[in-house]
Amino acid sequence: MEDGHGGVVIGSEISGGCQNVFAENCVMDSPNLERVLRIKTNSCRGGIIENINFRNVTVGTCQEAVLKINTDYEPKEVCCRGFYPIVRNVHMDNVTCKKSKYGVMIVGYEADSLAYTVNNIYVNNCKFDGVYGKPVYQIGKAQDVHFDNLFINGQLILSDMPYKHYSEWMTASEMQRVSDPTLLDFSKKPKWSYVMGIEMEGMLDTYLTYGDTRILDYLLKYPTKMISDDGNVTGYKYEDFNLDNVRTAKFIYRMYNLIPEKRPGELAALKTIFKQLEKQPRTKDGVWWHKTIYAYQVWLDGIFMGLPYYTLSAAQLKGEKKAKKYYNDAVNQMISTDRRTYDANTGLWKHAWDETHEMFWANKETGLSQHTWARALGWYTMAMVEVLDALPQDFFRRGEVIQLFKKAMEAVVKYQDKKTGVWYDVMDVKDPRNYLEATASSMFAYCLLKGARLGYLDESYREAGIKAYKGIVKEFVKINNDKTISLTQCCSVSGLGPGISKKVLKAAPKVKENTKRDGSFEYYMSEPIRDNDAKGVGPFIWASLEMERMGFTTSDK
Predict the structure, then answer these.
(1) Which of 100, 253, 396, 451 is the most exposed place for a label (fewest CB within 10 A)?
(2) H helix intervals, 211-284
(3) pLDDT tens for each residue of 173-188
């Protein structure tokens, strides 16, 4: 078959019905082929179309849909209506197509009472590639539409989602992929790292929202395995003064206060990590160094790694009266970081600032790194949200954080990709090598949605957050063959240095220089991209939970 508005077309005049049609072992390939299997009728004509069998068909190019069922054909036709047709028992098996706008397109009636007019549709063992519109496009109601082993653009398409919510689905997927939480984020051995803490906190919030105790049982394995009874933490070194190693303490703190059976080792570990923050070396502005090996450096990443735990645990570990000192310190650090890293030319924040202006990646006049890495700004904005969560409602400096948050999110929305709703990996560079990136996009979506819900941002930001989240689901979320889901297009890692100077060597004599990480656009583009990076999974779960508060489910588009 070459040309035609459909390879196999049934209708439109079908008032007498059409049953028991077989089409098999066909080849169709033409740029003029509009549809592959088309069934069309309307409520002027009535009739029953049933037992349609379409199998073993190879298709090249199709202009619209591989399978199109339309019960509202010629909607403006002048006629006597009310004679509703029925399309049922349609089987499409072993069909491949290389290019089409839609995979499956169904146009039914909007009324629930008419859902029966399209029922028992089966698409099995089919593969549609090059679909540039919606993989499945449905208008109106239909009953019992089944997809079994249907792949569109390499992704498994499900008619019945295994979970109602993406937060539950992603949590369950990660638990299935990695049975031991100490090995999350592709670890080969038990690891104490901020990446675990971020992902497990997202899982914890999923448990607190939906109550699946399997999640809690899973999460409990981490502190049990990583923290001894005397408070020693596997893989943690106090003397490194590494802010990244603080982040997971926030997860441990929340778990410790959630579980009635208190383990003394956890409290001891929490106190040690808090002490690290008290002793953490600082710039002259009073902002923590990112690590000893990154002496005199302020990274946007570090604000997120340290300040939320610092603020959340201060009252419990230091007492209510003393806590105000830590709250003030947290606000001061965020404000100082804004002053040092903000770039008025772009309206964005650079990845990092070197107080000495001596690092090879730093501008010699300003001390700033070259670019705005999206995930770094995501860390910064999430830090503001979490510090606001932890600060008492009557704390007099909350307004300063809210104003800074508004400033940041206003900039973030200006750089949102208009077509997809998500963000590029390097925000201040337009280059065909740049790519839409999932971890930062999840962070920004979460901040927009939560910020609007809590009243920090106006309604327009909620709409931007919804657009972002739907873009994440469309661009980045993939259903795997085992019915788990993955978050794709995650930047694995990006950083700066380490670099060497006399001052750095005095603080960290054993530091080794890494000049590849020079903060150039080319450097950011050189870092690997992977699926299910924990730095994206956690924020994606948080963004999902925000959408789910508004009623969003895995069936929504």
Answers:
(1) 396
(2) 213-226, 247-258, 264-279
(3) 999 999 999 999 999 9
